[in-house]
Amino acid sequence: MTERIPSPGASRAATAAGQDDRPPPPRLAYDRHTWKEIAHLLANLPASLLGFTYVVTMLSTGFGLTVTVVGFPLLAVGLMGARQLGRLERARARALLGVRVDEPSRLRLRGGGGFQRLWMQLKDPVGWRTVLYEFIRLPWGVLTFSVTMASLFVLWPVLPFIARGLTNADRAMVRGLLSPSDELERRIAELESDRGVVVDTAAADLRRIERDLHDGAQARLVNLAMGLGLAKEKVLEDPEAAASMVSEAHGEVKLALQELRDLARGIHPAVLTDRGLDAALSSIASRCTAPVKVTVDLADRPAAAIEGIAYFTVSELLQNISKHSGAKSASVDVWRTDDRLLIQVWDDGRGGARLDRGTGMKGLADRLDAVDGLFVLESPEGGPTTVTAELPWRDRSGAPG
């Protein structure tokens, strides 16, 4: 089983590698391409009437009600509907004109509050370009319908050439207004959405730290203070009991210190800051239930943030091996290729790991995706399991490597 978080632009590259969508040159004879083009031109009028009516109604109602609390949500819903109109127009152009363009990315609204999601919907460039497309299509639909109908009875011999010229304009409009945004716009939208994932993850980590402090070290220190208070009262009247209490308190201090060290290691281990990934990964590998061979082949160190993500990714994967895999051996390999940091964690356990089974894999994939990373899981039933993670390198100053 292989589950992959795709890199940006993968679908576009796949489409670009597809078939050429240019029809053959027009001829005096009527072939299937000519009849499809004629059908498209005749359908322009009803399609443009439907689209124009929708966007005018949507805009007038939404903007008219912006003085109330429902205006902007209505506009947001209207833009989502405009996206669907664009999808239908791309399907029509694909079926009748052979125009093959990518479907725009879905508007990703995860993370953030309700107002932030509403704002992302209101500034959706795909929806607004579809609105513009439907506005300019009404006069064009009237023109193409009229010319095609007249040509069917008057200019029959040259209609294939007329149809080709008119539909070439249609093709240009579909490619220009209904194609996906350029790559920069697409990446900006993805990064805005991914920022919500980072914020949610940081908030969850803070809640975990607060819970660990409250339930662990804080409670133990409170007991320690109470114990020392009782020992202080008994120092003179019962020295032996006081000494016993102090001894217990000493044990509590050791446990509290250990809990605080574990908590600090979970936030950011000192060994990672001081000695880098090689030493830090060797340290967590020594706590895995299966023997782990660690190989780190790095001439220098990536940015601190990337180093931290790499460390916690391997840490969680090794915890999964200890808890779920039943593995007898495992390995961790880290290396650099161009401007990417690559991590591969392998184990010979029972396999069957998936992103949707609550083993933390989905969270890891989301974290890597939020920093323009890649997460690939290969885990057939019966094993072995191989996880490959890829991160942008970025040097210690934060610039690309």
Task: Describe the fold and architecture.
- With 401 residues, the chain is of the alpha+beta class.
- It folds into three domains: 20-181, no CATH class; 196-267, Single alpha-helices involved in coiled-coils or other helix-helix interfaces, CATH 1.20.5; 270-392, 2-Layer Sandwich (Heat Shock Protein 90), CATH 3.30.565.10.
- Helices cover 63% and strands 9% of the residues.
- The chain has helices at residues 10-16, 32-64, 71-97, 114-122, 125-153, 159-177, 183-234, 239-267, 270-275, 277-285, 304-325, 361-370, and strands spanning 2-4, 292-297, 330-337, 340-347, 374-378, 385-392.
- The protein has a six-stranded mixed beta sheet with strand order 1-5-6-4-3-2.
- Helix 11 runs antiparallel to helix 12 (361-370).
- The protein is elongated.
Give short descriptive properties of this protein.
401 residues; alpha+beta; Single alpha-helices involved in coiled-coils or other helix-helix interfaces; Heat Shock Protein 90; 6-stranded mixed β-sheet; 12 helices; 6 strands; elongated; disordered N terminus
